[in-house]
Amino acid sequence: MKEALMGIYTLWLRDVIRFLRDKPRIVSSAAQPLLWLFVLGLGLSTAFVRGGSSQYLRFIYPGIISMSVLFTSIFSAVSIIWDREFGFLKEVLVAPIPRWSVAVGRALGGSTVAVMQGTIILLVAPLIGVKFGLVQLFFAFIIMFMIAFSMTSFGILIATRMRTHEGFQVVVNFLLLPMFFLSGAMFPTGKGLPVWMQVLVRIDPLSYGVDALRQTLVGLKVFPIWLDLGIVFCFGTVALALGVWYFERTE
Amino acid sequence: MRELKKSYNDIAAVKGVSFTIDRGEIFGFLGPNGAGKTTTISMLCTLLIPTGGRATVNGFDVVKNKLAVRKSIGLVFQDPSLDERLTALENLIFHAMIYGIGKADRDRRIPDVLELVELSGRQNDLVKTFSGGMKRRLEIARGLLHRPKVLFLDEPTLGLDPQTRYHIWEYVQQLIEDEGLTIFLTTHYMDEAENCDRIAIIDDGELIAMNTPEELKESIGGEVVLIVAEDNRKASLEIKDKFNIAVQEVNGELSLKVANGSHFMPELIKALETTVISISLRKPTLEDVFLDLTGRRIRDEKVEGMDQARVRMRARRGRTR
What we know:
CATH superfamily of the largest domain in chain B: P-loop containing nucleotide triphosphate hydrolases
Distance between the termini of chain A: 23 Å
Order of helices and strands of chain B: EEEHEEEHEHHHEHEHEEHEHEEHEHH
Number of strands of chain B: 15
Strand content of chain B: 15-25%
CATH architecture of the largest domain in chain B: 3-Layer(aba) Sandwich
Number of strands of chain A: 0
Radius of gyration of chain B: 23 Å
Pfam family, one (chain A): ABC2_membrane
Radius of gyration of chain A: 18 Å
Subcellular location (chain A): Cell membrane; Membrane
Largest sheet of chain A: none
Number of domains of chain A: 1
CATH class of the largest domain in chain B: Alpha Beta
Strand order of the largest sheet of chain B: 7-8-9-3-10-11
Distance between the termini of chain B: 39 Å
Domain ABC transmembrane type-2 (chain A): 24-250
Mean pLDDT of chain B: 79
Number of domains of chain B: 2
Largest sheet of chain B: 6 strands, mixed
Low-confidence stretches of chain A: none
Mean pLDDT of chain A: 88
InterPro entries (chain A): ABC2_TM, ABC2_TM_bact-type, ABC_2_transport, Nod_factor_ABC_transporter
Low-confidence stretches of chain B: 301-305, 317-321
Largest interface: A-B, 28 and 30 residues
Oligomer: heterodimer
Number of helices of chain B: 12
Order of helices and strands of chain A: HHHHHHHHHH
GO molecular function (chain A): ABC-type transporter activity
Shape of chain A: globular
């Protein structure tokens, strides 16, 4: 057990050090969500005259935070594939630590990095007129971490099933973008949508994460909070368990 | 290890290999690429699960007691396995952490191994700025950090320049003196194999010979005469006919083993009707041993090309990262 904890801690630390060192990556991964928020968000808000522009920005703000968390999570989880290609994975696999601790360490490391990236977006709240107290901030962190953890675990699951990085673009196009679009990050997922889309929205685990964050930060909701958190938690746990299961069987 | 086997979808990569290595020995695994060297090492290091047979390392079973085996071994892989975005020191610290070395011990040990591989001055540099030789040295330092009982070196000098290769061998010799460890290495460089106490020659997943380099060479008997004739085929038939000696043709040269080469050569030239273009004599090498056992050379042109491709790929990877 001592070995497992040390393994988890070491792999977590590695992710955090690598993240903090790579300043260009921090800036560029923060740039994209900010672009969505301020350029696309402001642009689209002129189309929705009814609510007024600040209303639309407030609406997508939690969605953009989730987007930032989602992408950072999946990208850091998929870096397992890079570790495989560059050989570092071997060093970890022959170390006297259980395999599952490697997967858990990476899941926690990736989540931490994703939360840090999400925090950058959280910092621009005053610019779009979103105000919240310390309690809300505290819950926002917990929810961000839950989204990050479940998405990193999901990413690890994908990574264990992929042999090369070439398949990664496929994952982005067929999984990440649809997950993001259907999550209700950019538009309300209520009655106006066609039925097939409403169904997909309910299948998308990220919808519940976005909803939880939106309830906490701007007070708009679709689902009850317990359902949101329950689904995010269950999805993450199942994904991690499956990821560990496959990872244990890697040769 | 006994009758160790590994198959991939019914294709046997290692077909029942058995041997024992003594403590403090340098044991060399010699064979062409694809012979099953890396597969065998991977099984001994618990990276691959054998499909048959059993093996113990430092007294621990490689299937039942993986973690204990992993603690007793140090590994230097054929391909680099460092985290290039971390510094040399960070790579070592992480290694120490996952091998359960306490901080006090770690702080004493890391400067030692860095000094051993002459990288003390570069410890705070990112590994991606290192040359191939430096990376390999850092990997050796890392492999030794947790005081393993057995050090596995999988093609430790592949793609390195001769000077670096020589240096790495110096370290290895010194390590055996200083740390008293056992070394298991794979190679397809003959001169490297010469440095081993014992060599196992592996080809096509099977162990075909195992002995000291001296005895392996002596087993051939006598000396090797190399001939290039105007018509190699005709010459070869003639030699077989007149002297009753087996002749092997490799890369346009005829090679034959004789008891006393300096007496044999004049006789041969006199007897042959085919014109001889060149003739030379040498002591048998391990290459001859391999040729004698398999009828092939360990490294032919194709293999050489593959090595280069691999080295190029490494260089490319280093850049894209």
